[in-house]
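Figure 6 in text form: structure in, sequence out.
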């Protein structure tokens, strides 16, 4: 039996974004079935779910992509970052941050081997830094898979800067997936922690580049602090009060 979901409980969670009639028709056409072959609980509110099936085998997986996962008849999709695809492309992994307020978070907390879901994708999303370069990845609890998809565990996460609610908890999680040298900075509601992040990111010069992912508000603020640059790529993964960004 799984531990209870991080608050709020299922009955209090917001309804979330649900697709309309036309969107549901499109999703039905594009969606392919996938099944869960393995579930791995990481330290803290994180779960890795391995998927397999024809949709997985036929796809061309690559770093920084996105895929939409569909969990029930509502056909409401949630976007996740594939990583850990095998050489034969017969399996792919997704790492869920269990924030406890949504459909996807709840599904991943409760899912077991043999369960099924729908898969749409993969599609291009962000170009993450390649391992061993001077490029950096900024993100948060939702960006761990992005780092892994780019092979940043090869250099123990040295090219990653993550903001987090629970710094020591996230460090444990990162160590469990091979990103133990990543910088982790405590998130503050007033965003004052980004002043600490900025000098770390300043290392990524215009020619080297930076990928900003995770919380839309942090990305916006950091982008403003650094000024416009062609070498900065951004992709918001979630935004307070919004559901199911793609
Ligand atoms: C391109 C892309 C790639 C992504 N990759 C990953 C990934 O690999 N791993 C991952 O964990 N997430 C990833 N995300 C983020 C994930 O899609 C969102 O967190 C999504 O909202 C989760 O769906 P849900 O059903 O749990 O919550 P929703 O029903 O979508 O949202 C319910 C409420 O929870 C809030 N919320 C959503 N996410 C968070 C959060 N992380 N922390 C706090 N509050 C939150 C929302 O603002 C909303 O108020 C990615 C998003 C995008 C766009």
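Output sequence:
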């Amino acid at each position: 039996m799984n531990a209870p979901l991080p608050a709020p409980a299922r009955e209090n969670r917001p309804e979330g974004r649900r697709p309309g009639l036309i969107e549901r028709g499109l999703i039905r056409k594009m969606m392919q079935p996938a099944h869960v072959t393995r579930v791995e609980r990481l330290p803290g509110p994180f779960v890795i779910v391995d998927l397999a099936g024809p949709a997985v085998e036929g796809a061309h997986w690559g770093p920084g992509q996105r895929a939409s996962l569909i969990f029930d008849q509502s056909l409401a999709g949630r976007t996740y970052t594939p990583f850990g695809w095998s050489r034969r492309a017969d399996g792919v992994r997704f790492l869920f941050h269990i924030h406890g307020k949504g459909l996807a978070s709840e599904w991943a907390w409760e899912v077991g081997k043999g369960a099924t879901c729908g898969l749409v994708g993969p599609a291009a999303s962000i170009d993450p830094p390649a391992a061993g370069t001077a490029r950096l990845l900024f993100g948060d609890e939702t960006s761990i898979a992005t780092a892994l998809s780019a092979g940043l565990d090869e250099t123990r996460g040295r090219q990653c800067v993550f903001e987090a609610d629970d710094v020591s908890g996230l460090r444990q999680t990162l160590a469990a997936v091979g990103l133990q040298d990543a910088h982790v900075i405590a998130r503050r509601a007033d965003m004052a922690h980004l002043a600490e992040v900025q000098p770390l990111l300043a290392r990524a010069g215009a020619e080297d580049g930076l990928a900003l992912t995770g919380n839309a508000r942090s990305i916006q603020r950091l982008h403003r602090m650094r000024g416009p640059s062609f070498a900065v790529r951004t992709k918001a993964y979630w935004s307070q009060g919004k559901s199911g960004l793609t």
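Caption detail: The chain has two domains: 10-123, 136-238.
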